[in-house]
Amino acid sequence: MDKKITVVGAGNVGATAAQRVAEKELADVVLIDILEGIPQGKILDMAEAAPIELYNSQLQGSQKYEDTANSNVVIITAGLPRKPGMSRDDLLATNARIVKQVTQEIVKYSPDTILIIVSNPLDAMCHVAYDVSGFPPNRVIGMAGVLDSARLRAFISMELNVSVSNVHACVLGGHGDTMVPLPRYSTVAGIPITDLLSEDRIEALVDRTRKGGAEIVGLLKTGSAYYAPSAAAVEMAEAIIKDQNKILPCAAYLKGEYGIHDLFIGVPVKLGKSGIEQVIELKLASNESQALETSAKAVQNLVDTLKTLDY
């Protein structure tokens, strides 16, 4: 194929993302991990599934970043996952060190690539990758809003017993407890959910969305979500690889949009071959603007903490 996607981290999120890329035949795939044999074994398993699923992507597992050279998109999932009782923020120092090292290696071999950051705490890890890479902000993008919006869409679908294909939802802000789901912009077949559900039910769905990752961590006990996060990252990669100009909620570096400066925060963006082609500014009500400002402050606190760490 003439396109190449590297996935860094062969854990559940990374391996599943690699599998989705291969099955969609978006690009050839390189799966990188520091653990000897793990990416090679998972890639071999995917290759043996190819005759059944009928995909023809070239697949490679490796520990060597030279094998990632000239990647069009790099999805970074490397880092420690959350465990029960941990917040995403508890991972800050360790994962900052990992994302820094990964980014340095990726940039060396793919200086024109587009980075999709999945590692937690997501918004802060975007800052690490942005600072280390020296890339323009349109080529460093965080996967958060697609996942959070998908969770809200799933919960709305369950609540109303309607097809998920009829449900659209929008979630702004940081990828954490201060995220800002927007019921006013969430619809079922074009009908705002505010016309279909009571305030109490909407608030319950919003609260469940904010705690969606923790709910899964609590159930799994020994890991965190990976089916939905990998699907979200690959939807972003597909929009870039196919130059779809698709509007998706992603963590983007804002330079005054929404009144936020020099901070990665989740907002709707248009994704195409250059990465972020445009930041979409929604007209927010005063309570929505205040909630987004609160979320931005929480992200800023993490970024400020990053500056005090030696990673």
Give a quick summary of the entry.
Helix content is 43%, strand content 20%. With 311 residues, the protein is α/β, with parallel strands linked by helices. The chain has two domains: 4-142, NAD(P)-binding Rossmann-like Domain (Rossmann fold, 3-Layer(aba) Sandwich), CATH 3.40.50; 145-306, L-2-Hydroxyisocaproate Dehydrogenase, Chain A, domain 2 (Alpha-Beta Complex), CATH 3.90.110.10.
* Spatial order of the strands forming the largest sheet: 3-2-1-4-5-6
- What is the average of the pLDDT values? 95
Query: What portion of residues is helical?
Result: 40-55%
Top-tier CATH class of the largest domain:
Alpha Beta
Largest sheet: 6 strands, parallel
Here the CATH topology of the largest domain equals L-2-Hydroxyisocaproate Dehydrogenase, Chain A, domain 2
Cα separation of the termini: 37 Å
CATH architecture of the largest domain: Alpha-Beta Complex
Percent of residues in β-strands:
15-25%
Low-confidence segments, ≥5 residues, pLDDT <50? none
- Rg, Å, rounded: 19 Å
Number of strands: 14
Question: Can you characterise this structure?
Answer:
With 311 residues, this protein is α/β, with parallel strands linked by helices. The chain is built from nine helices and 14 strands. It has two domains: 4-142, NAD(P)-binding Rossmann-like Domain (Rossmann fold); 145-306, L-2-Hydroxyisocaproate Dehydrogenase, Chain A, domain 2 (Alpha-Beta Complex). The chain has a six-stranded parallel sheet, sandwiched between helices. Strands 7-10-11 form a three-stranded antiparallel sheet, with helices on one face. α1 crosses α8 (227-241), α4 packs across α9 (286-308) and α5 (145-160) packs across α8 (227-241).
